[in-house]
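Example 3.2
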Amino acid sequence: MTETRVLPLRIPILDGESLDSWLETLGRRNGLTFSAFLRILGLPGNYFTRSMVSDLPVTVLRELEIRTGLPAGRLDQAVIGSGFPFGPRRQRRCRFCPQCLAEQEGRWLLKWWLPWTFACTTHEALLHDTCPGCGEGVRVRLPGHTLRFPAGTCTIASRLASVCGTDLTNAKRLPLAADHPLLAAQHHVDVLLADPSTAYTVLADLSQCTSWLMHTIDDDDLQSMGRAVRECWRRRPLATRTPADRVKPLGAAVSGVVAHAALPFLVTPDDALAAHAVHGLRARRDTPNKVIPRGMTAEQWSQLSPGTQRRFLQAGDRITGALDRVRFSSSTPRARVPEPGEHSASARIRHLPQLLWPGWTVRLMPREGMQENLFRGIAAALLLLPGEPELRARGITDRLGPHLPSAMTVTLQRALKSGHPDVLTALCNLAHHLDDHGSPIDYERRRHLIPAAPISPDQWRELCFRTGTQPGEQLSTKTTQAPRYLNAQRYLHQLLTGADLTDPRHPLALRSAPDRSRYFAFPPSLTLDQRDALHQHAIGILHDLNINEPLTWEPPQECADGLDLPGRHLGDIDLEEVRRIVITEQRAPREAAKDLDTTLTHIRFTLEQVLREPREWARSSSLGSWRLHQQAKEVLTTTFLQREYIDGDKTLAHIAQETGIPRHIAIAHARTLGFSIRRTRKPFPIDEPWLREQYLTRKRSTYDIAEELGTEDETVRRRLKHLKIPLRPPGVHSRTVMTKIDTSLPRDVRSAVEGTLHGWLRLHRFQIAMRFPSLDSAARHLKTEPNALVTQFRRLERDIGKSLFTRAAFGRPQQPTRQGRRLLRDLEADRVEALMTASLPHHHTPAPPDDHVLEAAHAKFQTRRNPGPPTPFDDIAVERIRITRPMLALLHDLLARPQQEFYGAEVIARTGLEPGSVYPQLKRLERAGWLTSRLEDDITWMNRATPGRGPGKRRTFYTLTAEGHRAARHETQHRTAA
């Protein structure tokens, strides 16, 4: 192995000197030309000088240090590092300062090779770009004739021309004032070069911004730079590349002007100041809605550092399209251009509900021009936009709400037009918070796991009754579910999943505008106890699904600190004032919003927090019934009933009276506990042999026996029947042998009296009743019940075999029929009247009515009374309606086709009823829940159109509901068609 020889004649390298300059000086010291000296050193004889300072391998530098006796690593300071960002500004020539060159005896500084060294801060002058003699760039090629010419001489030559030989140290000085902007810019560059890591980033960005700045800087920016600089700027090459795609060299003055314009937004640590500087430049000739500034290519933009891109985005925030402002987060410190294939926005969907959180809805929603549900859905989808490489707004919206219209741009523009551009910033901040911290709720998982019916009907009823509220009506006219129960399901599902109920794919979707209005009114109608119970039920659902998450969550309000938003905090409102206006004064929520200077949405969400006193319900209500059942469970225990009912021999009616619990509830509860129910009292104990002896042998009457036993006459009679002992006819006047009358009497009288009890009493009452206009007025005079008269007169008609009178109706008093008038004439006969008087006991013979009584009865009969509401059904869940003759005919027709869908014209054709009667009756049945309806579909409607004419009015089809079928059957069984 041979040792490396050290040069005998050596010269130390100067601070800041470039490697090419030192090697040239070292060759001169050893009496060799530059090219010969390089061959001796074994260095490549490259044609261009700049390769000596930018392309030499590290191993060559280490060997040179050994051969020249320099410490290891010293030559690293004489070359430009391999990572220096020359970019498109790499030039073959070297700039120079004549004064520095003269002071250093023709030795060249390394920094003169840098594209962004354009001025000498020591001598306050611009650097020269070319030789003042030949006009060519200096040191482009390796210096020749180094032994013929002194250092600092231009040695450029060609085959057709001799060596230039210009002494560069005597070049004319290009002075700059001490406060010249280019000197200040050079000072900044020199400071940057002291920190290579920062310098490389800034200078790389400066190179990419050069072409844009050369098209953006105008003459006004150069007014303070002097005539020489302005002249150089005017001669700048507008095209920065040659036809061969080589970079055109820029003069020192042009480079200085570019650096002076760029450093304020590249060097300052304040993003706001930097963005302001870029905005001032972009505003001159930029195109709105463009991310890349005019004059900069897409390739140059892509090579900018993330920090500089961020500042450009922030500067162009106000001129960029609304969607891009959110996509790039250009109004935030985290502005950036999304990378293709980036998935951070897609991963964010797990943390997002379909509807924006209530608190943020109140803060971000414009006061006017937006429908609440639409805004909440679009705003939630907008949270997927920051950092999203997908350019189609529809493609983003469809991930969360495919049912939503393409309204992203409109929503953002409404926010901007309302004077609150900070809404866009808030949306970006929310998205960034989710990216950084996530959400304690996985909405995507909940959307898959939460059942469509999170609460059963029985659970809902139990919850309402426990909180002292009503569960609501049992049936709706349009659905088989109770409206409040349906809205409770919707409320719970939306509470748990943040679902948008306007999404038609949802099983609980809102189907119409009235449906939406009823649901919006549901949450404010809940009492605090009822709402808390629903929340506890929702927490139980999460527990059952093994989901360990809070019930609800919203991003913190710190995401909007310092932002001017349209709305206030959700809690920034006086609950007592809201309660006074909406609940106490019964004014509309819109009026409350106006009085409290807020939005209707804010009031609606606030009403969910307002205390509502539960209503007091009567014992006859469903809530009262539930409370009575609960009381029965607490009071009527097994022990209690055993003691009082079984052992104490009390009746359930007696127990119900003592406890205040209705008898039917006491019976039902006792049956539930397994007790046998006695419908009557215990049989009165009567000894059978004794009773036979007293009744059959001694011929005692049942009344005497009952008096002796201390019971009722009827009790003795029932016991005799139970023992199958024939009963004697009661009373002498009622014996069959006594009711046989003379055959000469009228046949109808004999038919009503013979072989029956109380025949004469029925005839007497019929005679009196026919003088009155109705059975009601007759019953009042006879001091009996109308039902008793109806029963007795039906018995007369059955015995006689003919109808005796027509019933009364309003305006038409009751009238005896032809047979009835004949019977009345027969009763007025002296023989019949005498026999009737003799057969009736005195207390069964009321006095005939006088004229005053009859006149009052007829006057009262002519006064019409408004009928009261029909008595509700006990176990049929529809509203009961008054049944008229047309309604009864309609019900008979519907019952004949219980499962068949029909429309009004069909019913009219079948029944012959008037259209003016049928259609109102169908509407009444629909409102009462007996029928459901639907409009004719488009295809059927158009198919039945008459050629040449329109299809006409749509048909409404009706169907009898299950409960309506029960109600119709009940009504028709108790009535007959007239």
